[in-house]
Specification:
Layout (H helix, E strand, L loop, with lengths): L1 H15 L1 H26 L4 H26 L1 H25 L20 H25 L1 H12 L3 H14 L4 H26 L2 H24 L1
Helix pairs in contact: 1-2, 2-3, 2-8, 3-4, 3-7, 3-9, 4-8, 4-9, 5-6, 5-7, 6-8, 7-8, 8-9
Length: 231
């Protein structure tokens, strides 16, 4: 999934404009895309609206990406989360349109600072993080119950929400975690990940960029939390 986004961004994204570049960058790594776009707001503040729109779209693209991963790993958990994640995708797309309503596409190529996801070092880091989250989640669930699992998901999600989702998919399949608990923990991991990305945006970009991105996250997760609660 990540490599498909990387390939398309490399050969199509920049030629088609920053909006598409943002979406494709979100398929590779929404965190890396956010960091790169944050830096661009300091280097080219006149493109603030367009960079904000691209960042919001990049972060909206992570939700269908996660659904695809969950569908492969655990279709049952995927079905549980399809409504809230689809709602968050739509909310993110609308927030992106709003954020860039006054933006005009700039000329020239602008690439995101994305790494090839097929590099061995990245695969090893993901594998190590995945094993750590599995171990910590099981230990926390044994010691502290659901609260411990939620804390572990939040901490793991601040680094990589995909690793949390994959570990929870395995725990649901093994019968060690209930489905509704796992779905809530996945959403919590995404919230923690969004908080970290907001901090990255604030540290690396214009303050207005961080505020607008935080507002978009608030809209996305409000919709997702409401749909998850209804489900």
């Amino acid at each position: 999934v990540s490599y498909a986004g990387y390939f398309l961004e490399k050969f199509l994204g920049a030629r088609r404009g920053l909006r598409l570049t943002g979406v494709l960058g979100g398929l590779v790594s929404s965190t890396a895309a956010t960091a790169s776009l944050a830096r661009s707001t300091r280097e080219a503040p006149e493109n603030l609206a367009l960079s904000t729109q691209a960042a919001v779209l990049a972060n909206a693209a992570q939700f269908p990406r996660l659904l695809l991963i969950l569908w492969i790993m655990n279709p049952e958990l995927c079905r549980q989360l399809v409504t809230p994640l689809a709602g968050m995708t739509v909310a993110g797309a609308l927030a992106g349109l709003w954020a860039g309503r006054s933006a005009a596409e700039t000329s020239g190529l602008q690439r995101l600072a994305l790494r090839n996801p097929f590099q061995l070092a990245q695969a090893l880091r993901f594998g190590a993080l995945f094993m750590l989250i599995v171990f910590a989640s099981k230990a926390a669930a044994e010691a502290f119950g659901v609260a411990g699992l939620f804390w572990t998901s939040a901490l793991g999600g601040s680094v990589d929400a995909d690793a949390v989702a994959v570990s929870l998919a395995g725990m649901v399949a093994a019968g060690s975690v209930q489905l509704h608990v796992a779905s809530g923990a996945v959403l919590l991991a995404l919230v923690a990940n969004a908080a970290v990305k907001t901090g990255i945006a604030l540290a690396g970009g214009e303050p207005r960029f961080a505020r607008r991105l935080a507002g978009a996250f608030l809209a996305m997760f409000s919709v997702g939390a409401g749909l998850w609660w209804l489900a």
